[in-house]
Specification:
Chain A has two domains: 166 residues, no CATH class; 50 residues. Chain A is mainly α and 249 residues long. Chain A contains 13 helices and no strands. By secondary structure, chain B is mainly α. Chain B is 76% helix and 0% strand. Classes of the chains: A mainly alpha (249), B mainly alpha (106). At the A-B interface, helix 3, helix 4, helix 5, helix 6 and helix 7 of A face helix 1, helix 2, helix 3 and helix 4 of B. Chain A: It is found in: Cell membrane. Chain A: Belongs to the AzlC family.
Amino acid sequence: MSNKENEFNHSIDKGFLYGLSQSLTIAIGYAPVAITFGILATQFGLTFWEAGLMSFFVYAGASQFIAIEMIHQGATPLMIGVTTLIVNIRHFLMSLSVVPFFPERSLLWSLGLAQGLTDESFVLNTKVLKDVEGEENRRRVMLGINSGAFVTWVSLTILGGLIGKWLPVQFSGFQFALLALFIILTTMSLSRKNYMTYLIAAVLAVVLKLLIPGKIYLIISVILAAGIGAWWRVRKGSHRVGLNSQKSS
Amino acid sequence: MSFQLLETILLMTIVTYGSRVLPFLLFKGENIKGFARDFIELVPIALLAALVVPELVTPSGTIVIMNNPFLWAGILTFLFSRFVPNLFLGILFGMAVFWGLDKLLL
């Protein structure tokens, strides 16, 4: 493992700019989503710079869409905060699996590299960093990837917000836009491994919404459904322990 | 900007950045397994259900099936996006269908 790195440093060409160029694929993917977010945020009552501010600080697509839907439904900041936590806790897993690329990182690098970790940048970084030799270079490449994606997300949110300002507010279709977005995300992520959790959450949410005032039904149904789903998986998995305890997928 | 929105963005930032930065600050690179990992993986799909289905089935506080543009637009959008897996086109389709049904049913 070690002598390859020390022998000859021919990876000078793989630095910040290399990462930045790699981020183009993410930028293309982000563009329509960021513009859509900007448009919807302004349609749901935010100003274009408030939308931009949210993209700048939060920088997590799905939870931003969820937040403007919840703001629209009248949820409290605390409710939105808790919902954001359970949506974005997955970044913890991604972060955990990126960390081994940077054993010698300084505090500043830790703070900086963590900022740009999203679903998309995680996937790209994991793919690209494997082929970059030397931790110094890997840091710069990741910074480049993250920067390109981040700048695209924030600037195109603002652009979308400006577009949204000029669109006719009367069109009733806009009140369905976010639901449509979530439905499309659902069809993209439903699988044989998670559809039971989806159904449990759906039933619980409808029943609890009718029974409990406020938006707390969201969090209760999500935690219960994910908990039951995870418990079920662990239970099923434990039958196989002993046969195949060494290998993890 | 309202104080509520500022508070919302602040809380969202703390929990999101917190999830991203904690492993960088605390770990050399372990892996979470078992219940916690499955739970975290299942949260997004559960949340999609909890966000969408009640809004489709009970748009005005009680369960409505027939005269409900949300429900039918939702079902049609679901079917559409199964065949056309494109975020932008799907949203446009959903908005158009909802608008049409909204005019038709009320």
